[in-house]
């Protein structure tokens, strides 16, 4: 029996450093903070990459792009997502929709929501109505609320091509 749809979930956390711009969903946001990581630390694209790989049972971002490999140092997360989605498509799937949450004290997400949605849609060559992104502040508690970390979550629904 073939399955017509598959659901996937992705979750990622990066530490916050002071200074610079913060890359979220392929958008460089001026907010005097940046995210620390082996790659370019785009926490949202990492969560999306894990969600689509998980939904198609093709592994996870750490298997595809191990952080022990020199080639992945400062690697462009947009390129990693594109490569992952090529593999997902080669396995016979396409994205129906993505729903994402960014948990961050800084920056405030709503002013950047449209730019982030458009960036993700363009990257994956899907319609912007197939993507949604919302922000949560962490309510001043925990690592997110204290501004020490930014967390991203993504749920994806894949459908057969
Ligand atoms: Zn990451």
Strand content: 25-35%
* CATH class value: Alpha Beta
What global shape is seen?
Answer: globular
Give the CATH topology.
Answer: 60s Ribosomal Protein L30, Chain: A
- Name the average pLDDT: 95
What ligands are attached or bound here?
zinc ion
> What percentage of residues falls in helices of 4 or more residues?
25-40%
Number of domain modules: 1
Secondary-structure map:
Layout: E1 5-18, E2 21-24, E3 27-30, E4 33-36, H1 43-55, H2 61-64, H3 77-90, E5 93-103, H4 113-124, E6 131-136, H5 142-145, E7 149-160
Parallel strand pairs: 5-6
Antiparallel strand pairs: 1-4, 1-7, 2-3, 5-7
Zinc ion binds next to β1 and α1.
Description:
- The protein is α+β, with helices and mostly antiparallel strands and 161 residues long.
- It has a single domain, classed as 2-C-methyl-D-erythritol 2,4-cyclodiphosphate synthase (60s Ribosomal Protein L30, Chain: A).
- Helix content is 29%, strand content 34%.
- The strands form two sheets. A five-stranded mixed sheet has the order 4-1-7-5-6. Strands 2-3 form a two-stranded antiparallel sheet.
- Strand 5, helix 4 and strand 6 form a beta-alpha-beta unit.
- The protein starts with a strand and ends with a strand.
- The mean pLDDT is 95.
């Amino acid at each position: 029996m073939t399955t017509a749809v598959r659901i996937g979930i992705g979750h990622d956390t990066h530490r916050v450093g002071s200074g610079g711009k913060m890359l979220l969903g392929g958008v460089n946001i001026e907010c005097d903070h940046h995210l620390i990581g082996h790659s370019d630390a785009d926490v949202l694209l990492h969560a999306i990459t894990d969600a689509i790989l998980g939904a198609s049972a093709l592994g996870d971002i750490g298997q595809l792009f191990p952080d022990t490999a020199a080639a992945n140092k400062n690697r462009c997360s947009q390129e990693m997502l594109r490569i992952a989605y090529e593999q997902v498509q080669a396995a016979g799937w396409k994205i129906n929709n993505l729903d994402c949450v960014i948990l961050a004290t800084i920056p405030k997400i709503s002013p950047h929501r449209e730019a982030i949605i458009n960036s993700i849609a363009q990257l994956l060559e899907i319609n912007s109505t197939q993507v949604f992104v919302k922000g949560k502040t962490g309510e001043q508690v925990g690592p997110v609320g204290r501004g020490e970390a930014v967390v991203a979550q993504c749920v994806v629904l894949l459908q057969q091509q």
